[in-house]
Amino acid sequence: MIICNLNICWTSLLVLILVVLFAMSSDAGEKYVSVDFEVFGNVQGVCFRMYTEAEGKNLGVTGWVKNTRQGTVIGQVQGPPEKVKEMMYWLSKVGSPSSRIDRTQFSNERRISKLEIRGFGTRY
């Protein structure tokens, strides 16, 4: 009787371990995030793109940045969630030394399984 109960315990433990491992592996495929941004304020003619590119490279995220005809700066950032959050903070609160950020709009935030952009650059 004791042996039978041990088998049931071991079987239950094995099933539990398999369920946990399966749950962990299903998230493992989406280890990065991607987010689009638009920065409003005095962000053109103040080296905002250059500083954004440098900050992106410093944080180890990938993406791009570009001026718009409306006087804003748009772009996309991809990388590990915590690094992308740091970049989002920088884009909304820090910016280049001479810039003035009125607001930053983030959109299209999504989980991705692999980086879709190589490096961080300025687009024209």
Q: What structural category arises from helix and sheet content?
A: alpha+beta
On the 0 to 100 scale, the average pLDDT is: 86
Helix content: 40-55%
Radius of gyration: 22 Å
What is the N-to-C succession of helices and strands?
HEHEEHEE
Name a few traits of the molecule:
five-stranded mixed beta sheet; 3 helices; 5 strands
Tell me what you see in this structure.
With 124 residues, the chain is α+β, with helices and mostly antiparallel strands. Helix content is 43%, strand content 32%. The chain is built from three helices and five strands; from the N terminus they run H-E-H-E-E-H-E-E. It has a five-stranded mixed β-sheet with strand order 4-1-3-2-5, with helices on one face. A hairpin with a 5-residue loop joins strand 2 and strand 3. Helix 2 runs antiparallel to helix 3.
Give the SSE map:
Layout: H1 2-28, E1 32-42, H2 48-59, E2 62-67, E3 73-79, H3 81-94, E4 100-112, E5 120-122
Parallel strand pairs: 2-5
Antiparallel strand pairs: 1-3, 1-4, 2-3
Quick overview of this protein structure:
This protein is an alpha+beta fold and 124 residues long. It is 43% helix and 32% strand. The protein has a five-stranded mixed β-sheet with strand order 4-1-3-2-5, with helices on one face.
